[in-house]
Amino acid sequence: MINQIISETISLINDLIYHIHQLEDEEYILKLKEFSNSTIGEHIRHIFNFYECILNGIKTGTVNYDIRIRDKKIETEKDYAILRFQEMIEILPSLKSFDSKKINFIQNENEIETNLLRELIYSNEHLIHHSAILRIYFQINFPDKKISKNFGFNKSTLNYNETLSFLSLK
Questions:
Q1: Residue 53: pLDDT band by 50, 70, 90 thresholds?
Q2: Fewer CB within 10 Å of terminal CB in the chain, N or C?
């Protein structure tokens, strides 16, 4: 199962990189009033931080998504952000050996035991959620950009929509 989740993670990140590549530097850092003056770069950095927390958690034994590095360079330089995600993609396959390693998850004063698989699934869902927001950014502000059909949709939603399409053909 860990191989499948790592493959899905890599696929999701590659799809995100595809969309980042399309942006001009000034579009990446454009503050959008419709989204509380946040930028695409800020969302990208936020997504990156969750995976970074997992990688740090494997080293330290503790994952805490509230303690993030928040590298401003990822927010403001799209090529740097792409490079950091590509580095992460290179690292991900090596995590297979940590599949059964127990990790502590801390949020506020709560601490529970977790594992790499659960945290990757959580971060993938988090990436999909932010991709859905980014999809709206693109549709409103950059209608000339290509959006992949799966970008911002959970696999269960895609399967459901496929079922509806199949049923409407009958």
A1: very high
A2: C
Question: What are the beta bridge partners of residue 104?
Answer: 62, 113
**Rounded Cα distance, 54 and 19, in Å:** 23
Q: Check residue 39 and give its pLDDT.
A: 94
Tell me if the pTM is above 0.85. Answer: yes
Pairing of strands 62-63, 110-115: unpaired
Asked whether residue 115 carries a pLDDT value surpassing 80, the answer given is yes
Structure tokens at 98: 């940590």
The secondary structure of 76-139 as a DSSP string is H-HHHHHHHHHHHHHHGGGGGGGTT-EEEEEETTEEEEEEHHHHHHHHHHHHHHHHHHHHHHHH
Q: What is the C-alpha to C-alpha distance for residues 53 and 35, in angstroms, rounded to an integer?
A: 25
**Tokens at residue 147, please?**
């959006």
Residue 101 has pLDDT above 90, yes or no: no
What the block records as the tokens of 35 is 């989204």
**Paired sense of beta strands 102-107 and 62-63, if any:** parallel
> Phi and psi dihedrals of 147, rounded to 5?
-115, 125
- What is the tally of helices (H) and strands (E) in the chain? 7, 3
What is the CATH T-level fold of the domain 2-169, as seen in this structure? Four Helix Bundle (Hemerythrin (Met), subunit A) (1.20.120)
